[in-house]
Amino acid sequence: MLTLAFIGLVGGLITGVSPCVLPMLPIIFFAGTSGKTEPASAAGAKRGRKAGTPDGDVLVAEADSNEAVKPKRDFRPLKIIAGIIVSFSVFTLAGSVILSALGLPDSFLRWGGLTILTLVGLGLIFPALGHWIEKPFYRLPKINRNNNGAFVLGLGLGTLYVPCAGPVLAAITVAGATGNVGWRTVVLTVTFAMGAALPLLIFASAGSRISQRVKAYRDHQKGFRIGGGIVMILLAIALAFNITDVIQRSLPSYTSGLEKKVAESKTVQGALAPAIGNDASADLAKCTPGAAELASCGAAPEFRGTQKWFNTPGGQAATLSGLKGKVVLVDFWAYSCINCQRATPHLLAWDKAYKSLGLQIVGIHSPEFAFEKSAGNVQAAITNEKIGYPVGQDNNLATWTAYRNQYWPAKYLVDAEGTVRSIKFGEGDYGQTENQIRELLKAANPGVQLPSPVDGTVKADSIGAEGTTPETYLGYSRSTNLNGTGKLTPNKTVAFGLNDAQPNDTFSLGGNWAVGTQSSTSTKGSQARLNFQAAKVFHVLSGEGTVTVSIPGEPDKTIKVSGTPNAYQLVDKPNPERKTMTLTYSTGVSAFTFSFG
Asked: Which of 79, 98, 240, 412 could form a disulfide bond with 151, CB atoms 3.0-4.6 angstroms apart?
């Protein structure tokens, strides 16, 4: 139980600092400032009169001298966060059941939350309206009368909270959707909600402290209150029309590395397996998520329990049996999942390049939240993203469960014989996935003529500026984009071989390297070859030695490396260019990452 609670808490904390929570932060901050503020002297005067002093002068003086810097404790932030935890937990686990029992549409909770947010914003702008909104709560016990609408605001915000997907949230969502809710799921849900809410509590508390301690705020409280109300209303509109998704997609997925480590952890997979697993597809456990090598992981489960199909003739259901002979990429996604939105351009590029050569992509839309069950919303997302391949609506997560899935997005690569050969959780490693697709297409049809890899041409939101090569790691634990002879094996010295023609946005190693968890250290004849699209290239290095940079058509450059890990700039151009560089390392230089801008 402690392990399960720890996994839930860690998963929630990662979510709580991810780009997914950014739209909530200004709402939480201004909600924290919207409580009533009062100078310490006024509070002292009230206490003086209550004690029986006619004018309270003596106690006011005492308060001014001893308590002026000690404002009254404000429990509003705690009440807001408590409301978020309660509503998120309850509606994630039982939202579908509650809505079905009441005969309400799946989008009711989301629009209810937006309505509460808008009313609170209007209440900040028009105090009389705010008092009217809070009036029903005046009947609560006296201890709750101060800022008694805060908990209700938190309940509303909990229905708007759409965290990034991860294995913990996946296990919670599947349990809620399938009705398989036990004590394990409750522990996961509550600890996940608590972990995700802790960063929000910091913002709410910051707003509260500013409103109480900063004199400028107290002197202009009305203006700040009106500004906060306007911000809340604007954010409600942005959330209603999914405008915030554009902002989130444009930000680096700075927590993706942590999410990937959690998703691929054997401890996490073992702890969550009882909540999501099934014996019929146990062979899928033979696939290690994220592995570069193809494996044989049993027959791919048939699509099942779907409600509607899009982009198929007459809306008929796609079947794996009907796709026998094709290489099939099964993509689990949800339209409001930012991680999924960032992955879609790569799927579209593969569909365009390889569909006529034997690849069939099948999207399985598996909703995280109730409002994503609307067929109209899914159709709008398909149209907006220009998705042309078949998409099945898996509202009850029947196909998701059959595949023992744990993540959004997730890709299951199935060969022409119907065997699952590879599993990929989360974003990234697109070049690796494309190489696997090409390998399976060649195996299915040895005579097929494949075009050049297309992943390097994809314009998608990723780490770094638009269109640049994603950040590349040279250590074992977060190795990405390695494409050459040799395999990163931790705590061993490995012989590698450079590629003559390096594929776009990949690197290869040459000579001998001592492979570590976070970096690889040069030994004898160590080299690297990097194909990149960027205006600026940085290389994080440590140790003592030199690195010689060779780019065709340009003079060689030698970088002196000394000391602890630091970013050394290898390329500085005014505009992005597609180049291939070869680097030669002296012995004893540790290479961590390449990053691009």
From this structure: 79
Q: Is residue 463 very low, low, confident or very high in pLDDT (cuts 50, 70, 90)?
A: very low
Longest dimension (CA), the chain: 100
Place 163 in a pLDDT band, splitting at 50, 70 and 90: low
User: Quick check: bond before 26 cis, omega within 30?
Assistant: no
Residue-wise pLDDT tens digits, 470-484: 778 788 766 778 888
DSSP conformation letters of 163-220 = PPP-HHHHHHHHHHHHT---HHHHHHHHHHHHHHHHHHHHHHHHHHHHHHH-HHHHHT
Contacting residues for 223 by C-beta, under 8 A, at least 6 apart: none
DSSP 394: -
The residues that bridge with 364 in the sheet, in sequence order, are 332, 392
* Threshold 0.85, pTM exceeds: no
Cβ–Cβ < 8 Å for 175, 183: no
Confidence of residue 405 (pLDDT cuts 50, 70, 90): confident
pLDDT score recorded for residue 57: 39
Element spanning 412, H or E: strand 410-414
State pLDDT tens for residues 349-395.
999 999 999 999 999 999 876 668 888 889 988 998 899 999 999 98
| Cβ-proximal residues to 580 (8 Å cutoff; 6+ apart), any chain | 502, 529, 530, 531, 532, 551, 552
Cα 272 to Cα 185, 186, 415, 449: the distances in Å are 9, 13, 28, 42
Q: Can you give the C-alpha Rg of the chain in angstroms?
A: 28
SS3 (DSSP) at 324: coil
Beta strands in 418-526 (DSSP E): 420-425, 472-473, 492-496, 507-515, 520-522
* SS3 assignment, position 328: strand
Residue 117 half-sphere exposure, CB side, CA atoms within 13 Å?
A: 30
3-state secondary structure of 475: coil
For residues 520 and 509, is the Cβ–Cβ distance under 8 A?
yes
- The end-to-end CA distance of the chain, in Å, is 44
